[in-house]
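User: Teach me something about this protein's shape.
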Amino acid sequence: HSHFAPLALAMGTLTWRDVKYTVRTKNADGNHNGTREILRGSSAYASPGRVLAILGPSGCGKTTLLNALSSRLDVKRGNTLVGNIRFNGTALNRDSRDVALSYVEQEPKFFSNLTVRETLELDARLRGESDADARDVVEATLRKMSLMSCADTIVGGDTGGKAVAGISGGERRRLAIASETLGLGSDAQSSGLVVLVDEPTSGLDAFQADKMVDKLVELAERENACVVCTLHQPRSASFAKVHDVLLLASGGRTAYHGPSDAVVKYFSDIGYECPEHFNPAEFLIDLVSVDVGDGADGTDTETKTRQRVERIVECWEKRAGGANDKTISVHGAPRKPPESREVAIKKPPGPFRQFRLLAGRAWRQAKREMWVNGVRMIASVVLASAFGSCNFKLGLGPRSVKRRIAVLMQACINTSMLALVKSLNGFPRERATVRREMARQNGGYKPGPYFLSKLLIETPIDMVFPVVFGGVMAPMVGLNKAGRKMFLSTLALQSAAAASLGLSISALSPNAEVALAIGPCVMVLNIMLGDASGAFAEVPDALAPVSKLSLIRHAFEGVLCSEFEGLVFEKHDTDAKSVANASKPRALKIAKRFGEGIAPRTGEDVLRGLGLPISGHARRAANSQCKVIALNIAVTYVALVCKRG
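Assistant: First, the predicted structure itself:
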């Protein structure tokens, strides 16, 4: 049922025909029990220099259609997407180079600790602008989008260590449009700019929503762009400003497509009169909505409304498919095509330039989170003091051996858990922003530069906290001074290993909730397989090869060797706790039984008893930790590439 009139379409027109999207459905048990048509053959077009507003009830496929037009639909196994989407007669996809395609999400996310100006300047540089040109382009964009008043205010959000306040909802939406269209179109009319905006007015008050529509209209007319947006309950003033309307019924079927100022007359002609002083947008959405009803006449109400929707769709199909000449009168007289020219897309920067830009952003983000890191620092000192107080001055008696081993294992677990939770909590939030930026046709970047810049900035910061923890705890406990440097290095590497494990789990998980559920379980498995020495538990022979992947194992072996190498024990316990308990009858019995065994004289005796090399193994354990870090980094990188962020 094509309703296209070729004579009415100007150069730079976005068209789509028979777009169908079908998904498999599941029952309560998670089994596939059929299919559902989300889009049943949507056909329409968007003209340059005009705003096409897509209206319809919830669930009619508005956002799905927008995602299909932008090639963002994740067509999973068993789902099907077919259709013909073209721009200027050429197939449109993410790789199209003769058109600048921008997509503005419904809930745009940004790096929370960057200002509006910094966000836009980075976007401009990633699009190939020089530093000087980027500043000029951003200044012009700030004025065009009415963002000058908040240009130096941080954006806000929850991509950092904590949700922070920032710009308002309306400013955030305008920033999203500015970010996705920055530098495109430029000063002459362009026939190659398509802007798709998903519900830009949702969540805004009436005034801000109306202002947002104004900006979309300005963008379309100023840049001669095809602007397609979905609107949810627009007020009458906003509806009157858009040029064209696409009204969708259930299944994405077209109920009307044409100028907004002709829609009321069209429905009046087919028998549906809009009441006087009534919002036309609400009237249209009511017409194509099905009232399921909840009273005694609920079934009759549903049947009547379904029949009404079917009649409206049939009326449009007859009109659109019946006569091409009539389509011209419905959609407006043919306009003189604007002069075509190349889209203003500059050569994007190379990987090294992307790395430098993204590293600068990562540093600013981290620097402005210093108060969060300050809290982490205080927590590290408090935990270290608690550990040190519970195990104060162990001494060098025979009983100190087991207590030293316990303290070292606890230190490894504590360091790992803190780093893991931090990664699981922060990385999934950040990925939503990164995925959007990577998906850009122009100004996007590859996973490599982003991930390397993140590691370069965040890893050294994360390694500071275990060093502080160990530096406070070690002298309180009385750990071996000779191996102190290696002990702190092992804890630092352990933090990096646990953080990399958190990154890999987050990258493989579909969302933050799943990552936070899986992460602790994986860490518990690492702890269970981490004691290959048998100091606390025996690892079954069948799992011995798997235990080599445990980051706890290598850290534990490293701190054991750094602690016990060169250590000489005394014959009797001289620590304060042992001396205080020496006179207690129960303590005397325990001491007598303990004394029946042969106490180790040196740290090498302890290492030999644990099945560890007596010399140089701390460095080999550190090398193993580095291999675990490299493995997790590789897994994270592959996941980012496969999932496109």
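Now, about its shape. Residues 1-7, 186-191, 323-343, 586-596 have pLDDT under 50 and may be disordered. The longest helix spans residues 400-438. If you'd like, I can walk through any region in more detail.
User: That's plenty for now, thanks!
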